[in-house]
What does this fold into?
Amino acid sequence: MEDQKKAYQIFSSFKQQYYDESDAKTGLGSSTGILNMDEDIKIIIQRLNKKSKKTTTTRVKALQQLQEILATKDAAYIERFLKLFIILYEKILMGEIDTKVLLELHRAMALIMAKNIKEVQRNFAAIFPLLYFATFDPNPEISALSRANLKLALKDEAKLVKAVYMFREKTREVVGKIVRGDEAFIKEVSVYDEKEINDIIQVKLLAIAFNFTSNILKLSHEMSDDEREQVCAGLIQTVCADEKDTQRIIALFNAHKQSHVIRAAIVNFFSKLFALDYARYLDKKQVKLIMTAFVVHNLHDDNMGAQKYYWEEGFVLEMLRQGKAYGIDVLSLEGQLTELVKTSGFAAGEAYYKSLSELVDVILADKIR
It folds into this structure.
């Protein structure tokens, strides 16, 4: 067993749990364990584990070869291989930026499902949050393939809400590692040596994580009150537990002025938080921080399209409503807004106003109850 471990060091950057658990539990050292997979599979895993952007083509070919091998295997082989593949799937999903590599990864997952869907469903607690997360990839081809995989696994799309509730803990874990910038997790899943590439990947993951979380908040309204409380309270605490977390998200928003993707994702998250009445999980200081950052400071943004997005999506209106509910002086906020923007156009419902001051007057007089 020790020799096998030494010979198979390519697993060391994946999950140490496979070495820590007993043979009886994992079957690692048995004739059917993952340490005794075909030599071709071992070589493929080794190629996938190589770092640097120069090996992107190698990873694409390795995943294609993996599919060719798996296509010849039976359901029993897939059963033995699945736990390893889940580790591989998470690593590439979270650490890869290349579209071709990610497409081949999702095609490999589709093949595994076709070969042994029952084993996939038996391991669904580990697989579902990753499958669901992948559906929010900004690349439409990747997200479409991911949605097809999720649909295949669920069989019935109506089961999505139930799955979100059942696997809420793993979902919180996935979101938390990304949003909080877990250094150990980032190092573990990284497939590139280049810092600039890893930074780009982190921005992409953050955008996906905030959109992913927003979607769960929206879906939660199809749950019972008790289920909704368990899902949303925990998820919001993971993302935005206190004033420090709120400041961190605002700093992230301010640091990416040229990235509409990440900024829109953060705004989308807070918009859902307020529109769906989940601001009750925040304290007054957090609400005031958010209002100041997104209702006032975003108006300095050179991107007028982004400014109009905040207003037209009802985000600012909802913030003003919530601010009044929390006892925040929205009238003084009106003065700040009016001072910041004098002549830009803003929308409210179907009406369009030439000045922000005029719009704020309408909002304060007619909209806030």
Remarks:
- Confidence is low (pLDDT under 50) at residues 1-32, 338-352.
- The beta strands are 346-348, 351-353.
- The longest strand covers residues 346-348.
- The radius of gyration is 24 Å.
